[in-house]
Amino acid sequence: MLLTNTDFVPGKEIVEVKGLVKGTCVQARWVGKDIRAAGRTLIGGEMKYYTELLTNSRNRATKRMMQEASKLGANAVINIRYNTAAVAQGSAEVLAYGTAVILK
Prior knowledge:
Translation Initiation Factor IF3; elongated; alpha+beta; 2 helices
């Protein structure tokens, strides 16, 4: 399945718009890693645990969005966007959404 953040694909024609598709993943932090990451706020540097956590959440949300598009019979998702939000103390949601289409 073709995924793109543009609203068209050069050289391809959109023959049918199937509609909005989305995928979401809510993931909680692990308190042990959270304590270690808190030290990074004092000394600086990348918080690798959070980077990994959000990357995994984005991948899961993207996969779920693709599954929804496949169920609609789409062969591409265009105009993909991501949104991240805190849901509760210690957890975050990653939302992936786009337009499922059939390309020719």
